[in-house]
């Protein structure tokens, strides 16, 4: 007679068990990853520190050793995501001296950012805490730094001047953000047959044709009065 042993069903979403000591930086990274998952899934207001600690596989006191409260944890996570997007943009702009390739890299940076695991980009653009003054200022300051970096590239290519270049840079950033999010929401739609590389190439071509249309020595002025 053969005895069959039945294995219990797997539980892929079950939080890990309590973990041993880690270096402080590694523990902080682990806690931020757990917080990212919970905040994205639940939103700030519905997220609980108990759930975040459980997700990270640590006790609540350990979580509080690193972050005194939920708000501190959320702000630290925002800082991390803003830094990641800024670093992607910096690398793209420093990787080449060809301005056409820089524009392509800037567009690609947004697409790569929204396509990262965990969809943490939603904390920047879709957070239920965006009306909080500190959160709003933190996100806006991060985007302002990105716009300023892009403006330098646009000014170098078009000669449009600082104010005009900043406006064009804000437009380029908005184009990249909205396009990337639109693509992400539809990438698994059978009616949409655009890979990420194809989408980046298409949006980059649109942006470059607009920016490169400005003369190197622009006569654009803010005080131009339309006829």
Describe the structure.
- The protein is 64% helix and 0% strand.
- It has 227 residues and is mostly helical.
- The longest helix is centred in the middle third of the chain and has 26 residues, at 133-158.
- It is elongated.
Quick recap of the structure?
The chain has 227 residues and is mainly α.
List its salient traits.
elongated; 0% strand; Tetracycline Repressor, domain 2; Arc Repressor Mutant, subunit A; 227 residues; mainly alpha; 2 domains
Helix and strand arrangement:
Elements: H1 24-42, H2 49-56, H3 60-66, H4 70-94, H5 99-114, H6 122-125, H7 133-158, H8 162-186, H9 196-211
Count of separate structural domains: 2
In whole angstroms, how far apart are the ends? Answer: 96 Å
Share of residues in strands? under 5%
Radius of gyration: 22 Å
Strand count: 0
The CATH H-level homologous superfamily of the largest domain: Tetracycline Repressor, domain 2
Mean pLDDT: 81
CATH T-level topology of the largest domain: Tetracycline Repressor, domain 2
| Most strands sheet | none
What is the annotated CATH architecture of the largest domain? Orthogonal Bundle
Order of helices and strands: HHHHHHHHH
By helix and strand content, what is the structural category?
mainly alpha
């Amino acid at each position: 007679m053969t005895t069959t042993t039945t294995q219990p069903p797997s539980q892929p979403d079950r939080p890990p068990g309590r973990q041993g000591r880690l270096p402080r930086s590694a523990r902080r990274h682990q806690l931020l990853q757990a917080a990212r998952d919970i905040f994205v899934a639940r939103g700030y207001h519905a997220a609980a520190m108990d759930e975040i600690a459980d997700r990270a596989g640590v006790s609540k006191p350990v979580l509080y050793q690193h972050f005194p409260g939920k708000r501190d944890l959320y702000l630290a996570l925002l800082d991390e995501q803003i830094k990641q997007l800024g670093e992607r943009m910096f690398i793209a702009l420093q990787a080449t001296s060809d301005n056409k390739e820089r524009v392509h890299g800037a567009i690609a940076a947004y697409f790569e950012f929204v396509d990262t695991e965990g969809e943490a980009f939603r904390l920047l653009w879709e957070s239920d805490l965006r009306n909080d003054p500190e959160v709003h200022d933190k996100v806006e300051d991060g985007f302002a730094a990105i716009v300023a970096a892009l403006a330098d590239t646009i000014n170098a290519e078009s000669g449009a001047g600082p104010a005009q270049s900043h406006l064009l840079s804000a437009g380029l950033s908005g184009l990249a953000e909205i396009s990337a999010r639109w693509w992400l929401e539809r990438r698994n739609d059978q009616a949409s047959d655009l890979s990420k590389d194809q989408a980046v190439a298409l949006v980059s071509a649109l942006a470059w044709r607009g920016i490169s249309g400005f003369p190197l020595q622009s006569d654009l002025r803010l005080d131009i009065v339309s006829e």
